[in-house]
């Protein structure tokens, strides 16, 4: 059966590339009630918890965004990197790269960074807190998310702006104007690779058991991690670690502003910090779906899925599925089943120990220092689909 | 050394299978299996798997 003949099955339809489409709309909830999946203008959308859970680990599916540059008819250095980096690899090659990268992302290494996260968050809050207002994105989440990556790379915090700008320019590649923005994207990619090469040279000259040091160690056996793969991996950590964390923390603030009693509770009980991160990522994940592609024909839930079919696993809709969450309202004290905000299976986010650690420290401190946070002007949002979040969020609060 | 996986918190990501394929494996039904007693030569692999587990479900001892 082709995707066209699925039309005949009367599956619900969602236009996911319409900028007005919202992953939290009634249309998505109605579709979730009608069927386990919906047709979209580009592949299928999987809507329910159990199906997202199973399909994230399904042996007949591979990660689906590897073809993004080819789909946009784009070649060049960005496309080369995108197609060869960890997320785009499968099977033995993916496993080898992941094994080589694991030690640099291990929880042991991250624990040593926790005091740095606290220091960084405190420094940023001290800057704006006396005013009683700020743009939460420009003054906190962006410098914080980038500062954490600087810390990981052994760069002084002062370099954050430079890194954030390069990552943002490279990030244009994920947008609809990819092809038009290509010259900017290619220039940013080249700058980032030059930058990372310098970092590696510096670490080779002054060896240390930090993040880059661990990757350099893995690179000693070039058959396991080549020089190019070493650079590709560091570029991925920068590319994959900044916007995600920036957006997720912005979504956290928005969620708490809508649930003030939960913010007060967190301030009283900072040990709920980690649970707060998990609950925010359940109700408002920045990565609202992950993409998979069928590597051969197979049947799932009596639905034939043809080789090459794209499936968007709707994390956002899965973790508000009433089949699994009786009362899905935001509650940082509730025992919950796992969310999919970091994906799952072989491609489960490699940076999750870092992200969980830095967001926990940030939310704990923010809840202590910013009382009664509220919106203080127009919040500018990315579309409520794909990778979402706020790009501007003026807030006011009572400093404590 | 003994290897144990707390199946109450394991979410079957298979990161242990990637990190230490001689110790952890999936069967055709997707169930996780592991070698319960390992020798000294496998300890480093088991530790790598335990570190890599996103749910921190692997207990070594
Ligand atoms: C709140 C912050 C973050 C979120 C929400 C997030 C989310 C995700 C998701 C959903 C995936 C899986 C994508 C897929 O399956 O298609 C992923 C993969 C990945 N993430 Fe993150 N991430 C975050 C932070 C980070 C950080 C800080 C780093 C690195 C420093 C990082 C590095 C990676 C890498 C390397 C992969 C690819 C893993 C693989 O393919 O095996 N992430 N992330
Ligand atoms: S890595 Fe952890 S959660 Fe995943 S299968 Fe292994 S033990 Fe289970």
Notes on the protein architecture:
The complex is a heterodimer of chains A (400) and B (61). The longest helix of chain A is centred in the middle third of the chain and has 32 residues, at 227-258. Chain A is of the alpha+beta class. Chain A is built from 17 helices and 13 strands. In chain A, 50% of the residues lie in helices and 12% in strands. In chain A, the strands form 4 sheets. Chain A has a 6-stranded mixed beta sheet. With 61 residues, chain B is an alpha+beta fold. Chain B has a single domain (3-60), classed as 2-Layer Sandwich (Alpha-Beta Plaits). In chain B, a hairpin with a 5-residue loop joins strand 2 (24-26) and strand 3 (32-34). In chain B, 34% of the residues are buried. The model of chain B has no long low-confidence stretch (mean pLDDT 97). The A-B interface holds A 57, 59, 94-95, 98-99, 102-103, 106-108, 338, 342, 344-346, 348-349, 352 and B 11-15, 18-19, 21, 30, 48, 51-52, 54-56. Chain B: InterPro entries: Fe-S_cluster_ET. Chain B: Keywords: Electron transport, Iron, Iron-sulfur, Metal-binding, Transport. Chain B: GO terms for molecular function: iron-sulfur cluster binding; metal ion binding.
Q: Nutshell version of this structure?
A:
By secondary structure, chain A is an alpha+beta fold. Chain A has 17 helices and 13 strands.
Shape assignment of chain A: globular
Give the low-pLDDT segments of chain B. Answer: none
CATH superfamily of chain A: Cytochrome P450
When the domains of chain A are counted, the total is 1
Residue share in helix of chain A: 40-55%
Structure class of chain A: alpha+beta
How many runs of DSSP E, i.e. beta strands of chain B? 4
Order of helices and strands of chain B: EHEEHE
Question: What is the count of β-strands of chain A?
Answer: 13
Spell out the helices and strands of chain A N to C.
HEHEEHEHHHHHEHHHHHHHEEEEHHEEEE
**What is the overall number of helices of chain B?**
2
Low-confidence stretches of chain A: 1-5
What profile does the largest beta sheet of chain A have?
A: 6 strands, mixed
CATH class of chain A: Mainly Alpha
CATH topology of chain A: Cytochrome p450
**Which CATH class of chain B is shown?**
Alpha Beta
Give the C-alpha Rg of chain B: 10 Å
């Amino acid at each position: 059966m082709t995707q066209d003949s699925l039309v005949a099955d009367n599956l619900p339809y969602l236009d996911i590339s319409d900028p007005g489409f919202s992953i939290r709309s009634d249309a998505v909830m109605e579709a979730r009630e009608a069927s386990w999946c919906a047709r979209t203008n580009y592949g299928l959308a999987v809507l329910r918890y159990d199906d997202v859970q199973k399909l994230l680990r399904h042996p007949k599916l591979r990660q689906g965004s590897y073809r993004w540059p080819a789909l946009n008819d784009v070649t060049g250095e960005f496309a080369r990197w995108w197609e060869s980096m960890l997320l785009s690899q499968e099977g033995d090659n993916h496993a080898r790269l992941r094994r080589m990268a694991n030690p640099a992302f291990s929880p042991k290494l991250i624990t040593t960074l926790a005091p740095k996260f606290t220091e960084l968050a405190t420094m940023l809050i001290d800057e704006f807190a006396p005013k009683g207002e700020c743009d939460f994105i420009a003054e906190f989440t962006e410098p914080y998310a980038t500062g954490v990556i600087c810390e990981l790379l052994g760069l002084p915090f002062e370099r954050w702006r430079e890194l954030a700008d390069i990552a943002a320019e490279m990030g244009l590649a994920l947008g609809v104007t990819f092809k038009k923005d290509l010259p900017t994207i290619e220039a940013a990619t080249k700058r980032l690779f030059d930058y990372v090469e310098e970092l590696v040279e510096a670490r080779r000259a002054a060896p240390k058991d930090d993040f880059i040091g661990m990757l350099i160690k893995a690179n000693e056996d070039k058959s396991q991690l080549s020089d190019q793969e070493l650079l590709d991996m560091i570029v991925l950590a920068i590319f994959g670690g900044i916007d995600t964390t920036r957006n997720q923390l912005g979504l956290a603030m928005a969620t708490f502003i809508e649930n003030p009693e939960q913010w007060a509770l967190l301030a009283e009980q900072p040990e709920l910090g980690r649970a707060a991160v998990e609950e925010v990522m359940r109700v408002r994940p920045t990565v609202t779906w992950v993409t998979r592609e069928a590597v051969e024909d197979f049947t799932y839930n009596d639905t034939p899925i043809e080789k090459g079919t794209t499936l968007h696993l709707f994390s956002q809709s899965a973790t508000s599925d009433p089949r699994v969450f009786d009362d899905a309202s935001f509650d940082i004290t509730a025992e919950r089943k796992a969310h999919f905000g970091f994906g799952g299976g072989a491609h489960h986010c490699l940076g999750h120990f870092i992200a969980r650690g830095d967001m926990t420290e940030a939310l704990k401190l923010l809840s202590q220092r910013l009382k009664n946070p509220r919106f203080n002007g127009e919040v500018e949002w990315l579309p409520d689909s794909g990778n979402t979040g706020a790009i501007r969020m003026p807030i006011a609060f009572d400093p404590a | 050394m003994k290897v144990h996986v707390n199946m109450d918190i394991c979410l079957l990501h298979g990161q242990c299978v990637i990190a230490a394929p001689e110790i952890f494996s999936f069967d055709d039904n997707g169930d996780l299996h592991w070698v319960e007693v390992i020798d000294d030569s496998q300890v480093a692999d088991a530790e790598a798997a335990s570190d890599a587990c996103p749910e921190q479900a692997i207990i070594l001892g």
